[in-house]
Recover the amino acids of this structure.
């Protein structure tokens, strides 16, 4: 852990993370941002073609990951500025009636619980309760797996594990409603049973729960990150007496070994982990490092893995320019639909900020 602390204390680190924090606070309210060309296309589709467009959602998973980064900084250094930004963000959502469109919106749940615990204001716990109720009523397959998109009634994504399971476990324990803990654990266990590639030890992006067919690329970086985060952050709150605790811990250890074996010499992870000669992806790198550090802090992973976390942190720091994290892969469009565009995106910014916030807490 000493190496992580030494990295945090460098002047360059402090300056870059402060700039990243400031940019994330503004980006939280600005995303999604459309170019003039994109706005024109939306207008044509809506008003001329009479196409029903998806709602403009300022509380989807990219915003939630920015909130998670700011929340972790607030926890790590008791930063009042980040807390004020989060209060404004969530108060605005509550005032709007908290529209919940997709499973993605539930990614905000953990930061809401953080804010409730730091402020003691019950409105944030009540808001978290609304997210929990939304997930309870959301469409599921026959086994109780949350369907990521209702139109794809049997497609189960790794993303869902990271987006909802830590929140469900934590909320269920906080509220005393064990059904939510069970729901969170169920998502993890079923994905580990049905979504993994036995040969490599890496996950597919997802699977069809009706046919059992697995989809997407084996070892897509963010799928690995979502799954590892879901496991590690759920284990962080689950009691060790939980029946599935050791099962999940064992899989986290195995997946950590499989992923670490594919970490590049510069500390990064590729957009597709086995693609050593392909582009690095800062979002996947940050997510995997966050999961490793969460596992170490819980005692579920050996402390030796801090070397891999430190290498990832150094790489990420080298990618921070003008308060943004470069070399982040663009948004995925579905199974095996990974646009090869790289730049600055909220999921790279938010998860990098979260990692350095976690390092402050160590």
């Amino acid at each position: 852990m000493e190496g992580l602390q030494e990295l945090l204390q460098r002047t360059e680190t402090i300056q870059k993370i402060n700039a990243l924090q400031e940019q994330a606070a503004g980006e939280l309210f600005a995303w999604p941002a459309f170019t003039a060309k994109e706005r024109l296309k939306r207008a044509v589709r809506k008003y001329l073609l009479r196409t029903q467009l998806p709602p403009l959602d300022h509380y989807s998973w990219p915003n939630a990951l920015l909130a998670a980064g700011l929340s972790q900084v607030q926890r790590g250094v008791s930063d009042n500025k980040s807390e004020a930004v989060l209060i404004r963000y969530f108060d605005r959502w509550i005032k709007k009636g908290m529209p919940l469109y997709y499973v993605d919106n539930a990614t905000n749940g953990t930061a809401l619980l953080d804010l409730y615990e730091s402020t003691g204001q019950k409105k944030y716990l009540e808001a978290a309760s609304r997210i929990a109720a939304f997930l309870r009523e959301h469409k599921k397959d026959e086994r109780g797996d949350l369907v990521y998109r209702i139109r794809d009634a049997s497609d189960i994504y790794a993303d869902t594990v990271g987006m909802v399971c830590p929140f469900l476990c934590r909320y269920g324990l906080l509220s005393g409603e064990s059904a939510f803990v069970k729901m969170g654990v169920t998502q993890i266990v079923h994905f580990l049973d049905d979504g993994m590639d036995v040969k490599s030890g890496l996950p597919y992006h997802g699977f069809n729960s009706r046919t059992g067919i697995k989809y997407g690329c084996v070892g897509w970086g963010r799928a690995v990150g979502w799954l590892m985060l879901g496991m590690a952050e759920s284990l962080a709150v689950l009691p060790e007496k939980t029946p599935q605790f050791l099962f999940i811990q064992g899989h986290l250890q195995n997946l950590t070994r499989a992923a670490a074996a594919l970490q590049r010499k510069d500390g990064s992870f590729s957009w597709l982990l086995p693609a050593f000669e392909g582009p690095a992806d800062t979002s996947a790198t940050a997510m995997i490092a966050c999961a490793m550090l969460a596992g170490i802090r819980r005692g579920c992973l050996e402390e030796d893995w801090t070397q891999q976390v430190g290498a990832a942190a150094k790489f990420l720091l080298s990618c921070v320019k003008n308060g943004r994290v470069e070399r982040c892969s663009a948004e995925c469009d579905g199974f095996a639909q990974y646009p090869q565009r790289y730049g600055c995106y909220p999921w790279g910014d938010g998860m990098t900020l979260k990692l350095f916030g976690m390092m402050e807490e160590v």
